[in-house]
């Protein structure tokens, strides 16, 4: 199925890709093609890579918090350092401030996520303290 959107022909594919007919100035196309060739990519692959860098996927707060906690746990397990403890404490403090609403510009859902993660952290800390 073809759709004309503002002069750009878009074709829907079976997977989550769409086919787009794009007009480029010839010199721009030549520069992109030369760059793609040097990096062993197709012209299409280079255009997709460039657009992906310019327009990255959204980074949900919940995923970011989970990743930070996971990294902090790994670092804490592999390193015995006061700086690691300070980092973990700063992360907890930031989550507390997010949960309390002191950090501005975050949604109600982000506050809920921060509260959930804090609960998990404190439960985990309590469990590890009891095991020690």
Automatic annotation (TrEMBL):
User: Its Gene Ontology molecular function terms?
Assistant: DNA binding
GO BP, sorted A to Z: regulation of DNA-templated transcription
- One Pfam family of this protein, by short name? Arc
User: What InterPro entries does this protein map onto?
Assistant: Arc_DNA-bd_dom, Arc_rbn_hlx_hlx, Ribbon_hlx_hlx
- Under which name does UniProt file this protein? Arc-like DNA binding domain-containing protein
What top-level branch of life does the organism fall under?
Bacteria
Q: Which residues form the Arc-like DNA binding domain?
A: 21-58
């Amino acid at each position: 199925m073809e759709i004309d959107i503002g002069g750009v022909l878009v074709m829907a594919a079976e997977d989550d890709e769409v086919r787009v007919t794009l007009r480029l100035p010839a010199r721009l196309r030549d520069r992109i093609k030369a760059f793609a060739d040097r990096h062993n990519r197709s012209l299409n692959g280079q255009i997709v890579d460039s657009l992906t860098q310019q327009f990255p996927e959204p980074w949900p707060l919940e995923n970011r918090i989970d990743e930070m906690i996971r990294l902090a746990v790994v670092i804490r397990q592999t390193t015995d350092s006061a700086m690691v403890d300070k980092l973990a404490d700063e992360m907890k403090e930031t989550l507390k401030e997010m949960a309390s609403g002191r950090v501005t510009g975050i949604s109600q859902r982000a506050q809920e996520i921060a509260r959930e993660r804090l609960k998990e952290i404190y439960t985990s800390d309590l469990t590890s303290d009891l095991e020690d």
